[in-house]
Structures are given as structure tokens and as C-alpha cells.
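stage 2 :: seqdesign
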């Protein structure tokens, strides 16, 4: 049975750790899935929520490993082998140099072919700090980014209105974190924190200079349910916006995308109290310009990412302990679309970008017996079906966490591995650029 065991339990207000808890960390970029306790010393209402791929917090009270949205390899990683030579011409996925040990990327945003941003974390000793990288058309470079205090801080996603108006969303010490790029530098902008225990904004979509949305979850006291968290930027400040009632004990929003200011989707998952992770239900909500409402999607799974082509062409992807999922909105209802199954255990889809009705990419990872660990997963929708696209680089365990595109022949994906840290892959034909 394919599975991805990632548990979320209640906690003290503590450090969010992406790859492993700082006390448990044995190598930069390593990840583990475990159980953390709540501030009351009890499980969060005994609710166990399967987590998508972006990370979640742990208690600082004990040096336990951390529930995380990053994958846990099934085997000890080996040294990264020499890459197989790739043809110099042709439309293929190719790795782009960006060595940065002890780091990981979780979000990528293409402003233009020569202006791309990626966000995540980089370790400074045993403390993870915000990491922002920029592509200028020739190379990736690190751009200085602010942190809050001396504790750990991370960035999950990034979204741009223009080259001089970009938002990155993350967390520091179980508190929300938003950074803004004004064309010259990144700066911290205040964000709401409605929960008394935890507050996380996990994705952001910038529609215009005075219209941006961020989604996630928050938690307060007993019985510690995970509650939907929607925040809006009106050009002056971030504020919480009421979210709809699903009727479930726990609700987490993981991703948001917009067709227009009055047509916005957010996705995630819902969970009944005491239910196993396999009973996670997909959650889809829609903004019509006035309010958010739940739109039935009816699948036992969880959604990690959403991307829209138009009002009647929206894709969402995800995975839970049992299987991965791709879903499509046709303007009237959500339906499952069968994806390829490259392995027989732990197939995960983390991000999706919809370029056109017959050009959609989703990325993630799966476990491979041949490799003895994890293999990056790239699937492509051609208008009729999903097809797996083999990678054209290396054979070491790699995890793809984010994807975005400038065009159908200019697609970027980002992730990390255990030996090199972060890495980028680019789908293009260098001979036609």
C-alpha cells in the first residue's frame, strides 16, 4: 500500500522545522515524520491530520523529531552520482547549477523568463533562516532576506504582481511571516495571528498592488482543531477574512490561486476528530468577490496545490497516506482525473502549474526500489491524459516541491536533495532560446 505517514499533533508554541527538528538534525536537509505533543501534553483533540508537503511545527519542550511536509526517505541517502550526459539541444528537463548545501526550496514564481524568484530555507549552523534566490536569465544568486529575531524562520511560497511588487509568505516561531519586494529590497510586513497556539500562512497569491491573498491555518486552546486561515492585503495592511464552515473538526488551507479579483480558489483538506489520516477529505473553497464558500469536491484525499487557466479550467493536486490525486474543475463541479502511477508506494504530488487547457505540469516524488530511495516525479497533462515525464539528470534521491512556467517551453521546478541541498531543473530547449 502506498503511504505517506505524516502526523500533525498539538504542541507548545515552538519552532517550525522543515527538514527535521533542530535537536534531531543529523545532516542538512534531512527530514523526518513524527509526533509532537500539544501545549497541554495531550494530542490535539486526538485529531491526526495528514500533512501536505509544506512544513509544520513541533514542540520545543522535548528534542523530538518534527512533523513535516518534507518527505522522509526509506533508505540512507548515498552520494550523488555523476549525471548522465544530456543532449545539448532538444526540449528536456535539465538541471541548472545552484549548489547550496543545507538548504531547501518550497516555492517558485516566474515573473518573466529573466526574472524568477524561489524561496525556502538555509541552515546557519543548526538554525534555519529565510532563503530567497533570483534568476536573472543567466544564473541563480542569493538575495538578502530579513528574519525575525534569532530563531528559525522559513519561507513557503512567493507570488508577484510585477517585477517590483512581490510577496513571500512563511513563518517564524509558529507566527506568520510576510516579506515584500519593492524592486530594491525585501522587508517584513505585519500579518495577523488569530491563534493562541499556532498561526501559519502556507501560500500567497498576489492579484494586484492592493489585492493579495494568503491561506493556511491557526490553532488555539482545547480541543485544538486546525482552523482555516484566510488573510487579505488591501494595499495598506494584512487582515484576517472570515472563512466558511465545513462541518469538520479540522480544516487546513494549503494553496490559493486567482483567475481574477472576483474568482479565486483555495484548496486543502478537512478531517473529522479522531479520524485516521486516510480519511482526510479534499477541501475546495471559492471567493466570488464578496465571500468565501465551500464547493464540494468529495474525495478522500488532501490537496496541496491549485492552479487555474480560466473560470472553467482549474487543476488541483495532492496526496495522502493511500494515493496521490489530481482533480479538475470544469466550471460546474470538481472531478478526479486518473494520474500515472510510477511506483507502488508513497507517490506524492506537491505543486501544479496550469499553462493552458492542454499544458499542465505537476511535480512531486515517489519511492523507487531501483534507486533505493526517492525519485522526482513530473507529470504532464496534454489535454487528454496525464503522462509521466522521465527526468534527464542524475539518479540520487531528489524531491521536487515547486513548479512554475513562463511558457510551454520554459518551465522551472525546484526542490532539494541530501547531498547538494537545493536544486533547480529547467524544461526548455537551449538551442532555441
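stage 2 :: out
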Amino acid at each position: 500500500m502506498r503511504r505517506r505517514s505524516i502526523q500533525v499533533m498539538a504542541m507548545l508554541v515552538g519552532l517550525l522545522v522543515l527538514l527535521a527538528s533542530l535537536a534531531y538534525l543529523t545532516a542538512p536537509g534531512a527530514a523526518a515524520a513524527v509526533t509532537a505533543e500539544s501545549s497541554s501534553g495531550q494530542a490535539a483533540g486526538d485529531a491526526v491530520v495528514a500533512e501536505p508537503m509544506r512544513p509544520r511545527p513541533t514542540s520545543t519542550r522535548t528534542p523530538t523529531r518534527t512533523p513535516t511536509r518534507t518527505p522522509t526517505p526509506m533508505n540512507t541517502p548515498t552520494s550523488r552520482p555523476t549525471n548522465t550526459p544530456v543532449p545539448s539541444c532538444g526540449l528536456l528537463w535539465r538541471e541548472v547549477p545552484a549548489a547550496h548545501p543545507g538548504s531547501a526550496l518550497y516555492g517558485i514564481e516566474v515573473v518573466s523568463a529573466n526574472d524568477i524568484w524561489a524561496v525556502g530555507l538555509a541552515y546557519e549552523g543548526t538554525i534555519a533562516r529565510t532563503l530567497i534566490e533570483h534568476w536573472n536569465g543567466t544564473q541563480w544568486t542569493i538575495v538578502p532576506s530579513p528574519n525575525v529575531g534569532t530563531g528559525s524562520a522559513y519561507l513557503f511560497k512567493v507570488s508577484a504582481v510585477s517585477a517590483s511588487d512581490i510577496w513571500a509568505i512563511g513563518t517564524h516561531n509558529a507566527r506568520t511571516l510576510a516579506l515584500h519586494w519593492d524592486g530594491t529590497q525585501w522587508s517584513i510586513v505585519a500579518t495577523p495571528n488569530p491563534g493562541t497556539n499556532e498561526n501559519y500562512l502556507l501560500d500567497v497569491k498576489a492579484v494586484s498592488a492592493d489585492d493579495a491573498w494568503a491561506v493556511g491555518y491557526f490553532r488555539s486552546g482545547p480541543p485544538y482543531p486546525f482552523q482555516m486561515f484566510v488573510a487579505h492585503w488591501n494595499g495598506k495592511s494584512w487582515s484576517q477574512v472570515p472563512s466558511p464552515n465545513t462541518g469538520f473538526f479540522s480544516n487546513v488551507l494549503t494553496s490559493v490561486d486567482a483567475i481574477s479579483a472576483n474568482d479565486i480558489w483555495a484548496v486543502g483538506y478537512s478531517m473529522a476528530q479522531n479520524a485516521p489520516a486516510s480519511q482526510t477529505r479534499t477541501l475546495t473553497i471559492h471567493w466570488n468577490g464578496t465571500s468565501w464558500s465551500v464547493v464540494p469536491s468529495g474525495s478522500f484525499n488532501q490537496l496541496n496545490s491549485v492552479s487555474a487557466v480560466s473560470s472553467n479550467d482549474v487543476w488541483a493536486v495532492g496526496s495522502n497516506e493511500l494515493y496521490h490525486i489530481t482533480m479538475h474543475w470544469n466550471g460546474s463541479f470538481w472531478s478526479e482525473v486518473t494520474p500515472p502511477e510510477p511506483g507502488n508506494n508513497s507517490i506524492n504530488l506537491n505543486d501544479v502549474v496550469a499553462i493552458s487547457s492542454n499544458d499542465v505540469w505537476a511535480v512531486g516524488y515517489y519511492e523507487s526500489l531501483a534507486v533505493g530511495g526517492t525519485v522526482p516525479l513530473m507529470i504532464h497533462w496534454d489535454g487528454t491524459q496525464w503522462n509521466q515525464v522521465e527526468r534527464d539528470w542524475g539518479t540520487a534521491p531528489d524531491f521536487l516541491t515547486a513548479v512554475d512556467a513562463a511558457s510551454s517551453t520554459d518551465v522551472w521546478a525546484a526542490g532539494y536533495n541530501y547531498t547538494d541541498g537545493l536544486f533547480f531543473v529547467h524544461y526548455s530547449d537551449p538551442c532555441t532560446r
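stage 3 :: structure notes
- The CA atoms of residues 197 and 220 lie 5 Å apart.
- Confidence is low (pLDDT under 50) at residues 1-83.
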